[in-house]
Model the fold of this input.
Amino acid sequence: MRARFIIGAMQIKLTNQGFILVLIPLAVQVAFLVAFFCMLQQAEKEIVQEQQARDMVTCLNHIARTILASSAGVTLQAPSGGTVGDGFRPSAPSDSLPREFAKLRKLASGHPEQMQAIEKLEVTWRESWHAMKEIKNYAKSGENFSVLAKVAKLQIKLQSVYRAIDACAVYFEQLQEQGPVVQEELRQQQKVALLAFLLIDVAMALGLCFYFSKQTGGRLKTLMLNARSLVVGKPIEGRLTGNDELAELQRTLMQMADSLAQARQKERAILDNAGDVICSLDANVSIVSTNNTAQKLWGFPEDDLLGRRLAELINPADWDSTRQKFAEIRKTGKAQDIECSVVTASGLALATLWNVNWSESEKNYFCVAHDITARRQLERLKLEFMSMITHDIRSPINSVQAFLSMLAEKFYGELNEKGLHRLKSLEESVNLVSRLISDLLDLEKAESGMLVLEPIDAVSTQIIASSIDVVRSLAERKQVMVTQKGVAFDLFVDQSRMIQVMVNLIANAIKFSPAASTVTVECKEIIGGREKEAIFVVTDQGPGIKPEHHARIFDRFEQIGGRGKTSAGSGLGLAIAKAIVERHKGHISVESDGEHGSKFIVRIPIGDV
Done:
């Protein structure tokens, strides 16, 4: 219990726990293998001893047979009358006995008792062998009486040899019989040891796993609860002590919780003091959360706004288009700006610009609504001022144009050649001023968002043909050929505005094209996925535009390099073309290396296939 308390207090690190779970069972397994190996060695030793005892018994039997055969000639061939004659021929001792005794000594090596018994047997046998040699010698000399006395003594010695052989044989047979018994005991011990090892190893592994899983599992559970509290913004209640990895992770979570709490306070302070309404809407376009600015600008308390559908706040006249744009943002996943009017609690309509983004993971719209009422009023005043100025300027210009037309029609008499030339120059200057006034008014409308499009079903080739007709006289004066390419396809655009874009691009290309060159106008339809796109391309053979000027070629009053000096112009044509194209949700760009002509490309989305 004390050891467990110390381990629990130390909070062993996860890496060390892994080592313990591996090393302790491994140590037990090594100890068992050593013990099992010793038992196998003992069993092998018993088998060897049994085999040795069997071999020794075999050797003893061979020695007994040999001694019996060698002594038979001495003890059995003596005459019955007690005399030895020529027929007495004692057998010589066998030469195989020394080899058999050497084999016995080798088998008994390492066993002192066995070695002593064998040596005693060998001494007895040698004494008998010497006795038989003496009997043989006496027999050759004819001393029959001495031979008979020696034979009697030999029989006594042989009996001692046989008793010694029998004693050794009995001893070795006992060893041989004990071998299987001992081996069986060792096998039983091995089975018991193996079963005990398995039980101890499994119990130890399960015990360690249970202890560490209980200890680590409880700490992990506390850590997961703390992490969930951190996710939902609740205070962390559980505490982990110690110096292991989980305790370090707990301290990190605490630091994160403190940092997030501070960040939330700062975020809330920023949101509450922001000049714009910041809110989130669910998939049904109902308000989920909002900052305090909504109450300041719209006059609704926060509790009244939460759960309210956006349709209840938006001006009914703007709701259909607003709802469609919200659906489009959710479908495409791309953030967009939506301009609509919000009706406040007092009934006042505020012009607002919403930046809306859809989060698929949270199934919410995240919106920033900016009050642009003052800006719209200023733009309206500016546009009204521009309209008034252009009206006041156009009136005298119209009078001048009428007077010049009367002069050209010889209403006031015939003009000489010099007068006609000056009249033509004056007409061009007045027309330029008139176009400049119209361009300025269109550009102001586009930039203030008041350029209203009137889309209709149009044909691509018809737009190009009508545009070429407008600039035909300019092309003839510049001796430039304008050619049309491409196939006809339908598109839904403001046809008059698109003709205005193409006229500006084609006229611009004619102005900067050398005589006898060609301006090519091409249209084509590209289908990608479920989207179709109309592309108009105007290509000239003029001096080109350097790549570093491509970004600002569409700015108002911008004339780049030599292109702006070759012909008079207001510098508003490309800016107006860009504004009209972007109002169609399209894109306009230029491609040129600055040396070999320019290519202006207009891309207009057509819609779903």
Q: What stands out?
A: The chain has 15 helices and twelve strands. The CA atoms of residues 8 and 215 lie 8 Å apart. Confidence is low (pLDDT under 50) at residues 1-10, 76-93, 561-567. The two ends are 78 Å apart (CA to CA).
